[in-house]
């Protein structure tokens, strides 16, 4: 991490100043003295090399640079909160009252936000989280080791009930230097099927959707690489190892920065439902029901 990035406490202070319009009120909210808050702001300004806050008898106002830095800081603090919520769940405290199993893409990109919302609604709820592909999630539910699961496959596994909580699109991507990135015409599905790709493992929701979509085009070629997480597959694609098919949820930053390029494919639908699932006849109750409600309301 860069040595020119302020710590989280300093960023939280800047957000409080922006919200409250007063360094003193921000200090009180965070439980520190006003001189300590002033010192923290000055240290942050020295670190970043720009003035962030203008102080006057009427209060404190962000400079133009301070407004920009605050917007960036908000994203960092929200990401840290998501990391904390996910890590707390992974620790699996013994008094956990909600056991969640989630497939990898949902666990990486959606679940932390849902857990933050649940902590706001029910701060006393302890959550444990286990991750794996969609098949592994189903196995945990069948074994009574999870109260609620989240999967990305084509349908609800036999023996489970479920509800759609979102939609996702799979995208064919390559590094910018790959020949496909210079194509003018969309890729033919048969060419995609015949090309060794960087793929998720069998049993993953991503692989299920791709297998089904290409079944009538000759089926998938032997994978170039077969990896157990979206993050690993994405890193391999960014490195230039080969083309991959990844969740749109996972690649927004890479596409924006052109570390990856989307490759259009003609006449091929690569969409999937994201589902909450539970054992048939055991509809979620208590915290599991609360979490399910948050996912479906966009919480």
Report what the structure shows:
The chain is an alpha/beta fold and 299 residues long. The chain has three domains: 8-78, Winged helix-like DNA-binding domain superfamily/Winged helix DNA-binding domain (Arc Repressor Mutant, subunit A, Orthogonal Bundle); 82-158 and 279-296, D-Maltodextrin-Binding Protein, domain 2, CATH 3.40.190.10; 167-273, D-Maltodextrin-Binding Protein, domain 2. It contains twelve helices and eleven strands. Strands 3, 4, 5, 6, 9, 10 and 11 form a seven-stranded mixed beta sheet that branches. Helix 1 (8-20) packs across helix 2 and helix 2 (23-30) crosses helix 3 (34-48). The longest helix has 28 residues, at 64-91. It is flat, with a radius of gyration of 23 Å. Keywords: DNA-binding, Transcription, Transcription regulation. InterPro entries: LysR_HTH_N (IPR000847), LysR_subst-bd (IPR005119), WH-like_DNA-bd_sf (IPR036388), WH_DNA-bd_sf (IPR036390). Residues 6-63 form the HTH lysR-type domain. Belongs to the LysR transcriptional regulatory family. This is LysR family transcriptional regulator.
Keywords:
11 strands, Arc Repressor Mutant, subunit A, D-Maltodextrin-Binding Protein, domain 2, alpha/beta, 299 residues, 3 domains, seven-stranded mixed beta sheet, two-stranded antiparallel sheet
